[in-house]
Specification:
The radius of gyration is 18 Å and the shape is rod-shaped. The longest helix has about 40 residues. The model has no long low-confidence stretch (mean pLDDT about 90). It has one domain. It is mostly helical. The chain has 2 helices and no strands. Helices cover about 90% and strands about 0% of the residues. It starts with a helix and ends with a helix.
Length: about 80
C-alpha cells in the first residue's frame, strides 16, 4: 500500500509541475496585454499560484521518491 501511495505522490508531483508550467505560459500571454489594474492583479495572483504549485510538486516529489526508495530497499533486502 505504501508503494502505491508513493507512486501516486510522484504522479501528483508531475501533474502539478505540468499545471504550474501551463500557468506560467498563460502568464506570459497576459503580460502582452495593455497595462490595467486587472492585469496587475492577475500577474500577482498567478505568480503566487505558480510558486505554490512548484513548491507542492517539489515536496510531493521528494516524499514520494524517498518512500518509493525505502520500500524498494526493504523488498530487496528480504529476498
Amino acid at each position: 500500500m505504501e508503494k502505491f501511495v508513493a507512486v501516486l505522490q510522484l504522479l501528483a508531483a508531475i501533474l502539478l509541475g505540468i499545471i504550474a508550467t501551463a500557468t506560467a505560459v498563460n502568464l506570459l500571454f497576459i503580460v502582452n496585454r495593455p497595462e490595467t489594474i486587472s492585469v496587475v492583479n492577475t500577474l500577482i495572483g498567478q505568480g503566487v499560484i505558480i510558486i505554490c504549485l512548484f513548491a507542492l510538486a517539489n515536496i510531493l516529489l521528494r516524499k514520494g521518491w524517498k518512500s518509493l526508495r525505502e520500500h524498494s530497499d526493504i523488498k530487496q533486502s528480504s529476498e
